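Page 47, continued from p. 46.
Same chain as before, 571 aa.
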Amino acid sequence: MAERKSGAQIVWESLLREGVDVVFGLPGGATLPIYDALAKYNYPIRHVLVTHEQGASHMADGYGRATGRVGVCLATSGPGATNLTTGLATAYMDSSPVVAITGQVPTSLLGRDGFQEADVHGVSMPITKHNYLVTDVRELAQVLKEAFYIARTGRPGPVLVDICKDAQQAETEFEYPETVCLPGYQPTLTAADPESIARAAHLLNMAERPLIVAGHGVIIARAEAELLRLAEKANIPVSTSLLGIAAIPQTHPLSIGWGGMHGEAYTNYALQETDVLLVVGARLDDRLTGAFSTFAPKARIIHLDLDPAELGKNLTIEIPLVGDARLTLQELIPLVEPNQHTAWLDQIAEWKSDTDRRDLLAQETDELVPPFIVRQLWHLTGEGNCLMVTDVGQHQMWEAQYFPHVKPRGLITSGGLGTMGFGLPAAIGVQFGCPDETVWLIAGDGGFQMTMCELSTVVKEELPIKIAIFNNGYLGMVRQWQDVFYNKRYAGTPLFNPDFVKIADAYGIPAVCVTDKAGVASAIRQAQSHKGPFLIDFRVEPFTNVYPMVAPGKSNADMIRRPLPVESEDE
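Result:
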């Protein structure tokens, strides 16, 4: 016979059955029954108290990205729920599996502008994969079962469950559903159509200058091994999107970096010259393609994606492949013939040599510049033997350019929404998901201040996160645009920063300030050897720009390259 339980109990019972081990949240009046049930019945789920609800949603997102499991966050009604929405939009754009649970005013107050009422169901509709408003306790277990199923299956994404307070307090017979029946949502993990796969293989076999673009979908599908087998069998170079970084080890000879607005110049050249382009699990958004009409102009494009809505959304696709990346690549590999593509790879190597020379020159300066710091981080972490989390801005681009990633899911960053403030809370979620890994956060001074209140969470939870702040006194990426496109009119971008070392000290976190290149290595070693959290305030040269750069709406062929010294140009 089913046991009677309150809606609040059903929340925790359901989470247990979904394998949830940690929930990031902040209580309020509309979630008091849920929190009281956690304390009263001592459920074996770790609740992490955050200092701002936006932090909770980013933590759940970071946890989900790092592990592939569903991250869970919990907030009260009204401002608590609306504070989650930035994190939900971030997770939605980057296909991250998250379930957000919010409290809502009692059903008798719905639509009456009661205290702390907000229509979070309506607000979140365009920024979640699905959402629910629960007014009847009898529906709650089924809704939670569906929420987790939707969040983790197909193309992952955030799902919000808004639960009225009286539904939390009411009781019903509890029996957790074993199955889900959603006639309008039936994701299937299958390979693409065999005939289309055969056509794709024929194109690749005939290509003289083939190229693969690997996106985040490769990592979500855990198709890294299949991608590598395909590339190695036919000697096809592999580029990635920003979120696809580490879909192939970036130290592999066939890896040619990532392309787009701030991607590698030689990668963009290859994208412009390829004759057959295989895109796997990438959205082909404007930051990768530049002007859609000028992207890969010589290529016949094959696009493999689980979500059919992405195929042909931005570009004309010759062969669309709708299916799971791993299963489809498994079917494609036997049909692709071994090849060498020697002339093509030699051409890319020549382009890369020029990029490498410019990258080296960017570090060979007496000033403390971010590219030098990032490369030192790579060397001193055992050539990338860690998990990197970034905030959003110039530092994010430098990390992606100068830190070769080898580990799948080794870089956690906000791509689609570009959310400043993402970094610190996401790093907390990553550390919870991967407790045995060393987690480094690289943040700009502007973005770090948006959520630095979560240092409290780092200390309370005894998380050994290492934090590197690139402190240039500006909203750096916006300042760069003002520098290049707005005649150096720096309106609204100079920052007034606190002393980050003193801020860290106030939380009991050891910290150092580094002002020159000579202090970089010792500070990183100090952070690495410390068992707890550690913060480094790198006072970097303020006017260093990220190169290459593609102006919005322009072709990737029109990149603004890093200027070379006069003597280098004369060589």
